Amino acid sequence: MQQESAYWLAWSKISGVGPILLKRVWTEFGSLETAWNAPRQALGKIEGIGPKLLKTIEQQQAQLNPSELLEKHLQENPQFWTPSDDNYPRLLLEIPSPPPLLYYQGQVNLLENQGNAPIVGIVGTRHPTDHGRRWTRKITIALVKHGFTVVSGMAAGIDGIAHQACLEEGGRTIAVLGTGIDVVYPSHHRQLHRDLQKRGLIISEYPAGTSGDRRHFPARNRIIAGLSRAVLVMEAPERSGALITARYANEFCRDVYTLPNSPDIAQARGCLRLIHHGAEMILREDELLDMLGAIPELDQGKQLSLFDVEKVEKVEKKETLPQLDPELLKIFQSIATEATAFDVIVEKTGLPTPQVSGGLLQLELEGLVTQLPGMRYQRV
Q1: Highest-scoring range by mean pLDDT, 121-135, 307-321, 325-339
Q2: CATH says 102-293 is which class?
Q3: What is the CA radius of gyration of the chain?
Q4: Peptide bond between residue 186 and the one before it cis (omega within 30 degrees of 0)
Q5: In the beta sheet, which residues pair with residue 201?
Q6: CATH architecture for residues 2-76
Q7: Angstrom distances, CA of residue 99 to CA of 82, 84, 203
């Protein structure tokens, strides 16, 4: 299995081959070692691999030795899973973009990895109100008492409150980072990071030493949603990363619940928007626990409609583009007026896949692009 891990690592180094495309390659060949040695013609039959990307693959494969690459990588990253590993979280295998490498630190629970433990995501704003703080603690404690594992992103605010409340009650919690697992971000969560290593689990798709980058965090949110059977958005303004997690949860057929509050409260407006589009309201702990207990099994094929793209409120169009940094502008310009596939955008820009993913989410929050089903993007 370590041999197969070497090829997951090597493929992840190929420019333009992101998690979505890599899953297609794996599905087609059944082994990334087989795919690595496959004829160019066979690779070219896979959707998303065009002549330009084929040439890139051929050139970069000639410069990479998978076994040597793995040996060097293990010196700084001894603990990670790939989708070929038995212990890779099963729920992540069901999403279109499972992380090719998932680094971990802390206490592994194999029941969670096998999908046999109830896992709920809790996310929200970095600047919660007293109402949001109180209810986050209250809901987290209720979940812990009923055997749920809580997953969040170790960010300031709601995330940190959920992790801390879970640990204080002796519960199980998982932190998904947008940095390397050894990097503490934000810095004031240093003690929380230490506690998670001893009594919880820390995971990331980024190797050791990767520092905080705003482009990583939106991509990180898909892992939170993918690991969870349901996602609770406790507080979120209208432009919030928590709403990105909710959107991913919808795409992955997970349930979404949210805490209501007055529209006069900025931190509640994103939650109210979620309710408008079909999210369940959190009104009482016992009601929420009853609803969570009735979550249907996954793999039923039918997708919920929390974020029907046709109905999402459109941001007012602007006559000229706002000032964008060069990389964001490059990503925007790679999107045609018609729907453009994610892998095509990666190939056109030549940028790393996580950077493109984060850039697209920034453009979406700016109201410049919209995501369509099938990981396709279109200018607004």
Answers
A1: 121-135
A2: alpha beta
A3: 20
A4: yes
A5: 106, 174
A6: Orthogonal Bundle (1.10)
A7: 8, 11, 11
